[in-house]
Amino acid sequence: MPELPEVETTRRGILAGLTDRRVARIVVRNPHLRWPVQADLSARLRGRTLASLERRGKYLLFGFANGTLLVHLGMSGSLRFVVADETPRRHDHIDLVMASGQVLRYHDPRRFGAFLWQSGDPFQHVLLRDLGPEPFSPDFHADYLYAQSRGRRSSIKQFLMDADIVVGVGNIYASEALFRAGVHPLRAAGRISRQRSARLVQSVRDVLNEAIAMGGTTLRDYVDSRGEQGEFAQNLFVYGRAGEACRICAAPIRASRTGQRSTFFCPVCQR
Ligand SMILES: [Zn+2]
Question: Over the chain, what is the mean pLDDT?
Fold first, then answer.
């Protein structure tokens, strides 16, 4: 599933790859994504120039003078540049055709992604307005994390993955940030000290920054990809390593299943 580093990598890849920001048209082969793609989207975008491309959480915000195209990659979506005459594959649902002839193609087998038009302030869109702070923003700091976690009985891992608290920290990055901070993932959020909150803020940022620098963990098909797994996969300390030796203390990494998710941790390094 694309997480924040993959979305940020996609954003940077699009900005670096676009040679001309004018849109010729949008081709919608299948409008049935998580929400139906509006029929008038092509009319709104035709001839418009992309003024900005921002990210909020896992949403990409394609900014135009007349509004914003909000794009979410869902569970399995990806955007990549293709040459203009490349035959669409199965699940290639949408093309953003640029005036230059470049085509940005949206592929999404599971169709949980979204292409939504917002005329007004995009940050007031119902999907964005209640999101917690960005992990790299000054609003995400130790005192904030500490105050928000008081009285919470949910695990610190669940708490970090709650988009109302901080956006863009999925299962992989929550697991890795907790390992680096030495915090046991199943510990109650309300029992994390102020000092450990500070360490967690730092480790969340470090893990995400490294993953962005390396092009994500699960990248296979994104705009700048060469068909390989994102390099960050090599830097994982705990995620997906159950039974393997901890890279720090050599104890076997443990996995615990809660609901649909697996939680990975070192029973020695994390308390
Ligand atoms: Zn260890």
Answer: 92
